[in-house]
Amino acid sequence: MEPKQSSGHGDGATLLGEASCPLKVTEDIWFGCCSCTYVTRDQRLIVCHLAAHGDEQSKCQHVPMSGSKSQVLGNPLKHKSEKPFKCKLCPRGFACNSLLTCHNQTHAGEKPFKCMLCPKAFAFNSQLQSHNRTHSGEKPFKCKLCPKAFTQRKNLIYHIRTHTGEKPFKCKLCPKEFAYSYLLTYHNHLHSGKKPFKCMQCPKVFALNSHLQSHNRTHTGEKPFKCKQCPQAFARNFDLQSHNRTHTGEKPFKCKQCPRAFARNTHLRSHNYLHTGEKPFKCKQCPLAFAENSSLQSHNRKHTGEKPFKCTKCPQAFSRNTNLIRHYRKVCLRGNEGL
Fold first, then answer.
1. Could you give the 3-state DSSP secondary structure of residue 46?
2. pTM, 2 dp
3. pLDDT score for 169
4. End-to-end CA distance of the chain, in Å?
5. Which of 150, 220, 261, 313 would you label with 135, given CA atoms 20 to 30 Å apart?
6. 11-47 b/e with 16+ CB inside 10 Å = b?
7. What is the CA radius of gyration of the chain?
């Protein structure tokens, strides 16, 4: 059986034939995009995916194919967009010369497109148009599978992958796949050991920009992630999510060797060392080593004499929080009860 070429042009629904009954996803029918490698059994998802291609898909002379998965993947009409206009300063290529001209402005540092409402300027007119929507609040790019809408087409394309599960960016060195190209770029740094993101205030360097941004807050003291149930705030969203579990009691990280479970993955990893006997956290001032980093930090205070845990009822201070809690219950709390 030859793969069928859907008739019509326009949006994804027309491309698949609006009059026909929607195919059940249980049938062995697959739909393939002719502009990229995406295939799916769900008719709604291919409609949404085609809409994300926008003008690129509407100008395409090869409309989507349907058939068995092997037929769709082997479809000879699948093609890659030709990009004959190559940049001389980087590997990028473009479908037309005008796009190359605009791209060259990014190398020259030119930003001829200026916002009329604020001081910002842009290398591309399309960037200015997208920026203008931050002033107008307009969100013309609407998801067909949920109520969300976006100011930029690329953000719609990224969002659609949360519905389709599509991960088109594949690592060449391991099986990992990513929904976004920048995540693949960052992941590749882990293989190469490259750490291109440098802190401007200390010698630290990072493989990921997000890690640098989090680190920068240790210098500024900024804690933008605020708990909605208590006054605590955090420098990283990750730490806020972990903290939220102290309110919900959720412990999603379960040990495979015993019944214990933990609110943080780092706590599970440390706990696993108790099973393996491994003690990777070594004191630099004596031969002792520990299974958990928190135990090493507590031990280090014996060397430094630091006592950061201070009682609010009396002048005493302690090197470990557990000692403070024990003191409070046995001394200060009982003393107050006797009054």
1. helix
2. 0.37
3. 84
4. 90
5. 220
6. bbbbbbeeeeeeeeeeeebbbbbbbbebbbbbbbbbb
7. 28
DSSP three-state, residue 143: coil
Distance from C-alpha of 53 to C-alpha of 64, rounded to nearest angstrom: 12
Q: Specify whether the CB–CB gap between 5 and 75 falls below 8 A.
A: no
Which residues neighbour 89 within 8 Å (Cβ) at sequence distance 6 or greater?
104, 107
For residue 14, the surrounding DSSP H or E stretch is helix 12-16
What secondary structure, in 3-state letters, does 282-298 show? ECCCCCCEECCHHHHHH
Q: With contact defined as beta carbons under 8 Å apart, do 177 and 169 qualify?
A: yes
Reading the block at residue 306, the tokens are 């630091």
* Pair of tokens at residue 331: 């001394």
Structure tokens at 157: 């394309």
Q: Where are the beta strands (DSSP E) in 223-291?
A: 225-226, 233-234, 253-254, 261-262, 281-282, 289-290
- Of the candidates 2, 58, 69, the one whose C-alpha atom is nearest the C-alpha of residue 31 is 69
Round to whole Å and give the CA distance between 37 and 54: 16
Task: List domains and CATH numbers for the chain.
Answer: 4-73 (no CATH), 85-189 (3.30.160.60), 190-248 (3.30.160.60), 253-304 (3.30.160.60)
pLDDT in the model for residue 286: 92
| Helix, strand, coil share of the chain (percent; to 5) | 40, 15, 45
Supply 106's token pair. 């990014």
Three-state secondary structure call for residue 59: coil
Amino acid letter, 194: K
**What is the helix (H) or strand (E) element at residue 105, kind and residue range?**
helix 97-108
Convert 265-296 to b/e letters by CB count within 10 Å (16 or more is b): eebbebbeeeeeeeeebeeeeeeeebbbeebb
Place of tokens 């941004």: 213
